[in-house]
Amino acid sequence: MNRRALMLVSATADGTLRREVEDGLRPRPEYLVLERDHGVELLDWSRLPGSPRGRSAWSSAVHVAAALRSLDRHDVAFSDSEHVGIPLAVAMRTLGIDTPHLVIGHHLTTPAKARVFRRTGAHRSMTRILVHSELQGELAHRELGVPQAKLVVVPYYADTTFWRPMDVASERLVVAAGREHRDYAILAEACGTMNAQVFVAAGSVHSPAATSHEPLVWPTNFQRGFAGYHALRELYARASVVVVPLVETDFQAGVTTVLEAMSMGKAVVVTATKGQSRLVVDGVTGMCVPPNNAAMLRDAIGFLLDNEMERRRLGQAAREAVVNDWSVEAYARRLAGHMEDLAMGNRVAA
Q1: Largest CB tally within 10 Å, which of 178, 264, 290, 343?
Q2: Based on the number of CB atoms within 10 Å of its own CB, is 72 exposed (0-12), middle (13-18) or buried (19 or more)?
Q3: pTM (2 decimals)?
Q4: Are 33 and 82 in a shared domain?
């Protein structure tokens, strides 16, 4: 970038994280690519008083206060989520600060966030809002009053270097990962009597407090446990099928798991919720099933377990799609392009 950009990062980008990335122990986050390749200055949790370790009202307030102190030295501010984007927008509007403000809106339509949007008019100090789902953009416009010209759909990403095909023999193993809006009850119903092992990595490094539907009793062929980045990559590598079972939702829940598995060349089965947006093309880069349909989910998983050539075909197409369109480098370029555009005074997205 030719302009000075400040990115509010809702994570700790300290020396430990940087060493882990450098040593290949974890995937590259987009903010480090933006810093390295596009000269974006990071205001992450390690630079804040008290060094927050998680999202909270307090951490957001501290983050916004730190950003306000340095906005006059930058041409554009970039909030990596609505958790900091909304309070920063409110503060900027109150103080009369007109620095261009780019915001990523992951899930703008939760009841709490919707109330804040309507009550404060926060979008008036958001120059452009990037969403990962077309439906989120439509709802933000229709229900939250955000002008259409401020909303842009930008696909999410995976680090295709870390999440890569590995020379590991696949097993009769089904892997599911993540917690946010997951429907593990329907997965248990679908696979509880199946001749396959199922591993559910139900923790989440992105949304550890998110809820999911779980069965009252887990089937005997299921194992559960948290898996860090390396362990999860090994599970994906061993799996014949990766499943992302979701409850109906209006945002792109499960996108991280889907793209990780696709990037590793795995056959993916995902619930086709309203919030899914052109991520998995049914029969081309994976398989889609309706929400709350155990029979169709069981049929899709069983079909892939029994058809190695079909798993390979879908996996290869999935890997190619992520490399071509959804790599971390491509995502960072898109974000940097929006920051540059706003810094040059272009308020309406092209």
Answers
A1: 178
A2: exposed
A3: 0.93
A4: yes
